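Annex B. Sample input.
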Amino acid sequence: MAKLTVGLPQGTRDFGPDVVRKRNYILSTIRTVFELYGFQPLETPAMENLDTLMGKYGEEGDKLIFKILNNGLDNPGKEKQVRDDFEKVLQGKNNKGITERALKYDLTIPFARYVAMNHGQLTFPFKRYQVQPVWRADRPQKGRYREFYQCDADVVGSNSLLNEVELAIIYAAVFSKLGIAVEIKINSRKVLTALAEVCGGADKMTDITVAIDKLDKIGLEKVKEELAQRGLTAAQVTIIEKYLSIAGTNEDKLAQVKQLLEKNDAGKKGIEEIEYLCSQVKTQGLQLSIDFTLARGLNYYTGIIFEVKANNVRMGSIGGGGRYDDLTGLFGVPNIPGVGISFGVDRIYDVMEELQLFPEEVHIGTQVLFFNLGDVESKVAFGLLQQLREKGIRGELYHENSKFDKQFKYAEKKNIPYVVILGEEEVKATTVKIKNIKTGEQQTLSQNQLTSFSFI
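Annex B, continued. Sample output.
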C-alpha cells in the first residue's frame, strides 16, 4: 500500500492549544472593547452565492475569490455539459453550471447582504461585530494566509462622523490593551475622488486607486508606469506624482492637499472630514497620521478610510476599514450608510509573538494538578478537585498511579503552576500538600482550606 502523504493545504495552519489560547486572548480583548461601545455579535455562513461577492472588491480582489464547485458534477448524463462549462471557467468566465457559490472574501459584503435582507427588523443605527474566518486565493507569505480570521466592527444607518471618531478610539484602545504600539493612518476616498476628477474624470478613480494601493510594494516609478499603462496621460501622472509627494506634519500635508484639490467640491468635503476627525480624537489624547497615499483598493469605500501599522515590526497592515455610504444598494436596498473597521487577528498574533507581548498567564491552562497516589487517595483527590472546579479553578487528576517524577514532569510540560499531593498520611490527617512548581515552595493545608487557596 502506498505511503500516505499527510499535509495541509498551502496557506492554512493547525492551531495547537498554546496558539489557540493566545489567539483567544487577542479575540477576548477585542470583543471586550467592542461590547463597551455597544456593538452586538453576528455570524454569517462560510459560503455566499457567487453573485453576492463578485464585482464588489475591484478587479484585483475578484481574482482572489475562492469558488466552490457545484454538487453533482459526476452525473454521467451531464459529462459533456460539464466539460463545456469547465472550458468557460478556464477562460476566466463564471459559469453557474460549475460554480454558484464561493467562500467569503471578507466580512463586510456578507454583512451588507445581511442588512439588506433584514433591514425591516433592525434598529438603526445597527452596530455589529463579527469574528469569523475568511478565504482568499492569495500567494502565501509572511503575514498573508489563504484562510485567516477577521474581526470587524461596523455601524450602519448613520452618516454621523461620531462613528469614525469612536472607531478610531476603539483601534487605539484595543492595541493599547494588547501592548502594541501602532500608527493609525487615515485618508478620505473623497480626496481620491477629487484627485481622479482633477486628472480627467471620476471614471479614472479605480485605475488610480488600484495603482496607488501598490505604492509601498512596487515604489513610485512602477506606480507611474502602471498609471501610464492604464491610459493616464503624462500630465495626469505628473499631478498624481505631486499628490503622492505630499509630506510633513499633518498640518503640512493638509496645507499641500488644499492647494492641490480644495477647489474641487469632493476634495473640500474630504479635507473637512479629515480635519474634524483629527480634531475630535485629539481631545481624547489620540494622534492620527494623515496619509494621502492610503487608498485601500476596495471599490465600496466612499469617505474616511483607516489603516493600522504596528511600529518596530516588518509587517503589513494589522487593521483597516472605512466608510461605505451605499453598500446595501448593491443588494437593492439603497440609502443605508455605514462605516466599519477590521482587525487582522493573524497578523496581530505574529506581531505579539515577535515582540513577546503575550502575558505569562495566557500560557496557563490547567491551574492545579492532583497527583494520583493510589485508589483510596485518588478517590479523595477527585472529590476535592470537583470542589475546586465548582469554584472556577481549572484542574486535573493525573490519569494513573505513577512515580512522583513522572507526574511532576507532566505538570512541568503542561506549564501547570501548582500540584496537590494527597498520600496515605494526608488522607488520614485530612490535609493536603500544595507545591508551587515554579518557586518550589510547599505548604500543608487542611482539606477544608483548599477551596480558599489562591491558585493564581
